[in-house]
Design brief:
Blueprint: H1 2-15, H2 28-53, H3 78-110, H4 112-136, H5 143-164, H6 170-195, H7 200-225, E1 231-233, H8 237-262, H9 279-307, H10 312-334, H11 339-361, E2 364-366, H12 368-371
Antiparallel strand pairs: 1-2
Length: 372
């Protein structure tokens, strides 16, 4: 009897998912936009890496214009200007998708009222940014950075108001707004990166922020398909603790990887020199948490499959991604950091972080499953 009743209860729960309080039937449009948002967040890490690894970081000498007199690169700037401008254009694509996800989600969870409120915030932000620009420009102040900062503050205010007034699927509303605000902030930080002559710490922060946005869009995809409502732990407590320790190892690996790249030869422009940490020493330090991470993920994966735990499939994806990461890392270190391998390493790091995000979200399940 237990073998027959448990699957029936689970099937009933799946069939009745639409009747769960807070459930929102998301359209195909939202699902497609959410996937495109995730993919473009990964792609822009690749294009940003291409800017740096080809020495095109100052291919556009100005921001937001490419030159003092042109929005687009001129023939004199050559391929470096094209690469840098291509990355800037990709930022616009990422931003439009993030905004589209916010607007569609707001309409899905609350109808026209939250949607109209967000549009009013957007209009007010554009007007405020224009006013700041008009005031700062005649005073020879940094007009565009000031206008961008104003727009960012309005976006944050809109996000806070929207999340506080949402009663359904607040998790998705928050994740959508985090991505949208993050893209606006990234555009601002990208401009600061150019204006500071590719400061290595700002460049590193720029990459780390992009990686976190990949994780946010991955979390949105997981929660979009999940049943809303209370959740409970789906794994033993020791497994959950070890999973979070693994997350710490992943964060340390990425942190030292960013510091290593910031001190390495790929500064983003031939005239930008790195000063500070010894890249050779940091490369070894970066490998230590990397190997610890690989060991922890292997233990988690084997345990999950032996115990038939919920996140076992995604742990398998994570262990494969990290194994490839380790291989690429050793390869690039032995071959003198060829640009292509460094770029692959950067993209794989974001995918590893996204896979880990999915694993963490799989540590819990809807409480209604057992109740059914």
């Amino acid at each position: 009897m237990p073998e027959t009743t448990t699957p029936r209860a689970t099937d009933a729960t799946s069939r009745d998912a639409h009747s769960v309080p807070g459930h929102v039937p998301f359209s195909r449009t939202i699902r497609v936009l959410a996937w495109l948002s995730f993919l473009t967040e990964v792609i822009i890490i690749g294009t940003g890496g291409a800017v740096r690894l080809t020495g095109s970081g100052l291919g556009c000498s100005e921001w937001p214009l490419c030159t003092p007199d042109s929005l687009v690169p001129t023939p004199e700037q050559g391929i470096h200007g094209v690469i840098e401008f291509g990355n800037r254009t990709m930022t616009g694509v990422v931003g439009l998708l993030a905004v589209a996800v916010v607007l569609y989600v707001l309409q899905a969870v609350g109808g026209k009222r939250p949607l109209n409120t967000a549009l009013w915030f957007a209009a007010g932000g554009l007007v405020a940014a224009g006013a700041v620009y008009a005031i700062a420009s005649p005073l020879n102040l940094p007009a565009f950075p000031a206008a961008s900062a104003t727009l960012l503050l309005v976006c944050i205010a809109a996000a806070v108001f929207s999340i506080r007034t949402t009663t359904r699927r607040r998790d998705l509303v928050a994740l959508a707004w985090i991505t949208a605000v993050g893209v606006v902030a990234q555009a601002f930080v990208g401009g600061i990166t150019v204006l500071t002559g590719l400061n290595p710490f700002i460049v590193g922060f720029h990459y780390t922020s992009s990686l976190l946005l990949v994780c946010a869009t991955a979390a949105f995809l997981v929660r979009m398909y999940a049943t809303p409502g209370p959740r409970e732990r789906a794994v033993p407590i020791w497994f959950a603790v070890l999973s979070h320790v693994t997350g710490l190892a992943l964060a340390m690996t990425i942190l030292f990887g960013v510091l290593t790249t910031a001190s390495g030869p790929h500064s983003g422009d031939a005239d930008v020199l790195r000063h500070g940490f010894d890249a050779t020493v940091l490369a070894h330090v970066h490998s230590w948490p990397g190997y610890i991470l690989a060991g922890l993920v292997t233990v988690l994966t084997i345990s999950a499959w032996v115990l038939r735990l919920e996140p076992r499939c995604w742990l398998l994806v994570l262990v494969i991604a990290i194994a490839v990461q380790v291989g690429v890392g050793v390869w690039q270190a032995r071959d003198g950091l060829p640009p292509l391998l460094v770029g692959v390493h950067m993209v794989l790091a974001s995918l590893s972080a996204a896979a880990y995000t999915v694993v963490v979200l799989r540590l819990k399940r809807p409480a209604a499953v057992d109740a059914a």
